[in-house]
Write a structure and sequence with these properties.
- There is one protein chain.
- The protein is mainly alpha-helical.
- The protein has a single domain, classed as Winged helix-like DNA-binding domain superfamily/Winged helix DNA-binding domain (Arc Repressor Mutant, subunit A, Orthogonal Bundle).
- The protein has 4 helices and 2 strands.
- A two-stranded parallel ribbon has the order 1-2.
- Helix 2 packs across helix 3.
- The longest helix is centred in the first third of the chain and has 11 residues.
- It is globular, with a radius of gyration of 12 Å.
Length: 85
Amino acid sequence: MNNFSEQVIAVVKGIPRGSTLSYRNVAARAGFPGAARAVGSLMKRNHDDTVPCHRVIRSDGRVGEYNQGGSIAKERRLREEGWRG
């Protein structure tokens, strides 16, 4: 795993249940401002259940896609955690 991936995963693992961050915010907190699309690509390939990629959403507040069931599954999972959207 490279530094970018490690930093992004560390940020995503730190997002509390019921909370979200945008791809842009994750990129910035990981030290890679402007890398929101790269964060999205990394999350799209994530199949590690210890990385809560469902907590990363679009900057416009929409949930976006999810590699484990699409946007409906992502929103359902977030709401189960207490996310209000």
